[in-house]
Amino acid sequence: MDLLQCSQKLRGKRKRRRSMSLNNLRDGLLLEILLHLPLQSVFQCKCVSNRWCSLISTPYFTRRYVSHLHTNLQPFTLLFECKDDQSITRVLATNSEEPEVKSLAAYVHRQSEHLWLEASCNDLLLWRAKDDGEPSSMTVYYVMNPITRQCIALPPITLPYHRSWIQAGLICSYDYNKKQLSYSVVLIPYFHDKLREFKVFIFSSNTREWSESMVLCPEGFELTHFAFCAVPYKSLLFWCSNSGRLLGIDPYNTRCCRSFEQPIGWELDKETDCFGVCRGCLRICQISMFYTRFSSILRIWELKDYDNEGGGKWYLEHEVSVNQLVSKKSPWLTEHVQQKYPLPLVLAFHPNDGDILYLAIELKVLLCNLRSKTVEVFCDIPHDPDTWNEKCNIINFVLPSWPTPIPFAPLQNGA
Amino acid sequence: MSNQSESPNPTSSSNKITLKTSDNEVFEVEEAVAMKFCTVKQYFDDENNNNVTSGTSTTLIPLPNVESHPLAILITYCKKHLEIKANNADNKKEMEIDMEHYEREFLKNVMPQELTELILAANYLNFKEALDFFCRAVASAIQNKSVEYVRKFFGLESDFKPGEEEKLREEFAWSFEGVDED
């Protein structure tokens, strides 16, 4: 559509009428127009003039823009990094057609192989610079917003463990009125269940320093190698043990932890298959074999009635026999899940839709609807099948209705 | 009154309301149409409350902030809006499709300068659907366009000091990827 040329042609014909440029609209009406733009265009419009820049930079604009979008349709992206000795494959599986996603995908793929994805919180990612160093060498972490390309390097830290024995978590909050980002990074070394307390390393944006704290360990809690990424939830960072127990750490007060036993009906000798947040509640998933029916059962529990006074109880949300799942589009997939004891890899919960689960089978991401009991191929995982070991790092990345700004200048090219 | 504004065929509604624009033109419109303009409706309701005996067919409402040109366009848009709504009273989806189709055709005959006065008029008349529609029209004309195009479209010049714009462009470099050509 080229309204501009058209109008210039017509300008002469309508001399009688005084024409008024759109620039005569006052701020309130200009705002009503800008609210309809996609995020990328809004940010570009900051470069139009001083007036536009200050209008778009107000907290009021951000609030209006965020509430203008349908938050329940918030697009999100699963980001995972499959690592083996030779290579890193980063995969983005997304439910969005937004233009940001394309440039996000390109940007994440461009990130150096010397960076490892460690954790996420909303739209921020935590990366770690990979080096082949000894336990005593320095480690650098980066907090990055892959949409705006803003990135900040945290001060280097020397850790007394080999880094593959450390798990990281990121938690952040942004105050739009004060335009202030607060974030914390928490590092926990893996440990077995005999510890009574353990040491954590915490970086806080308030102090801009790393500090060490002791955390009292709930009896029998262990955090072993292949546990899940830490999940930020209601100002705590939650870790899930392989046996389905949760430990929530407050980075600002490590004496103040929350722990939850595994749900009733949990199979103790089976591992946790997924841990995350859906519709504002923590969720946990376990697939167990059901020998008498030659099947495997997928169960999902949700932690309801959570509050800061100690409330929170597991409820069974879904119980589905994996070999009941049917694919309408791919007959091979139906066949695959209907074999004896099918064991798909559970990648993630959908952040807003409680019936949707993302699975992986045979280098394909699947979208599974637990209510309609259907499963369909969502996208391919472009990893070498010979080195695919299912030990990938899965990060939920929620595309924001407004990107979380990181203070300080953007970094030129990643890290 | 209220059942008339929901009348299935707005063109047949009997009561007329007279609107007088800032350039002294007089428009006689069906009540159902006029009632979509909340400012008019408010005036009309106040008048009726103050003077119960006054005949509605002779009401004349002055619109000192609206010229005849945008008002004529808004009346056409409003009539069609009501008509589409009435034709698809029990099918919301059909209504949306028809409306979308009509709006697309409608925009082909609207110039950017007209958009300014249309937005101002729709805003003054408090005609929400039209205001939203024209704002969306402007947004879709400038989305994914270059900053220079947006300035031209809005008829404004950059007022940044030397270097300021470059700095902003650097800061928001990500937002400049994949912009359409002018």
UniProtKB/TrEMBL annotation, chain A:
SUPFAM superfamilies: F-box domain. Pfam families: b-prop_At3g26010-like (PF24750), F-box (PF00646). It comes from the Eukaryota. InterPro entries: At3g26010-like (IPR055290), Beta-prop_At3g26010-like (IPR056592), F-box-like_dom_sf (IPR036047), F-box_dom (IPR001810). Residues 19-65 form the F-box domain. PROSITE patterns: FBOX. Coiled coil: none annotated. This is F-box domain-containing protein. It comes from Castanea mollissima (Chinese chestnut).
UniProtKB/TrEMBL annotation, chain B:
InterPro entries: SKP1, SKP1-like, SKP1-like_dim_sf, SKP1/BTB/POZ_sf, Skp1_comp_dimer, Skp1_comp_POZ. Pathway: Protein modification; protein ubiquitination. SUPFAM superfamilies: POZ domain, Skp1 dimerisation domain-like. The keyword Secreted does not apply. Residues 15-82 form the SKP1 component POZ domain. Residues 131-174 form the SKP1 component dimerisation domain. GO terms for biological process: jasmonic acid mediated signaling pathway; protein ubiquitination; ubiquitin-dependent protein catabolic process. SMART domains: Skp1. Involved in ubiquitination and subsequent proteasomal degradation of target proteins. Together with CUL1, RBX1 and a F-box protein, it forms a SCF E3 ubiquitin ligase complex. The functional specificity of this complex depends on the type of F-box protein. In the SCF complex, it serves as an adapter that links the F-box protein to CUL1. PANTHER family: SKP1. Belongs to the SKP1 family. Part of a SCF (SKP1-cullin-F-box) protein ligase complex. This is SKP1-like protein. The lineage of its organism: Eukaryota, Viridiplantae, Streptophyta, Embryophyta, Tracheophyta.
